[in-house]
């Protein structure tokens, strides 16, 4: 058994177990809502590569450690305080984080064995990156899925430019620009989840995967499927038509103007949300999702690696929208980011275009070998 679990580096932030044919990965940073550190990304990569090569392991499941007496979190994203510190210090580990995270995202999408993501509770940002490539994405009524990066002056990365672009209509643009959190029914309807298991069944499901008989990959999948129920009805207010009407427009300015001209509460609230986001990074985000519809996942991840480099370096850390957004949300916590420019009318089209120019030559790109 011991040789099925390689040595890990994250100091207990990733826990690995084997039960029969099933390898279990537990994100074990509950005090930080299981947000991903670089060491956790490295451990997940090590485990997945090791288990891919071991015939004894036929399936993998990933879940988040629980918090006593508190709502669950699968994974709330990446370690944004680390991003802030590393950017200000010029720490090359910042670039390593994104290179290795995006490689892990690609590995999961291409994984040769069934990979099951138990997406109970908060699933945001980096949590979406390690779940959207799963063969089976399991949700509960406690699941809250979001790509909230525009709120910190970033863009929906970890493959978000690709998987949000696969959503029907212009749902992807709406999710990407607003960072809106959606529940299980909408997530399944829009292709961001597969099956629904009620929360009262969740402990029994996890117990079965950890300690029940798991002789085959088919049995692992059956352990989930025998507990599947109908998800709550999606789209209760019929918002899909509204989303398409507004978010299919060509520019962020057009979307805001369209929302302003609508006289319903949803449009008003949506516009207010967008007015709090970084204008520049909303323009970058909109272009990313639009391009994502014609890109492979590998090409999208290479593009995102270019974009995230520019997010921290194009203007330098002192003027980075991302550094400022993280400062306002997680460091000073004043929730008053000073975006430059502050309004959509002042977006510099040339600067937005510069985000899409790779800082690396083709054979130098850190993700050049992804296929």
TrEMBL record:
Top-rank taxon, per record: Bacteria
Domain Enoyl-CoA hydratase/isomerase per the UniProt entry, residue ranges: 23-356
Keywords in alphabetical order: Hydrolase
Family annotation (InterPro entries): ClpP/crotonase-like_dom_sf (IPR029045), ECH_dom (IPR045004), HIBYL-CoA-H (IPR032259)
Protein name, entry field: Enoyl-CoA hydratase/isomerase family protein
Organism of origin: Pelomonas candidula
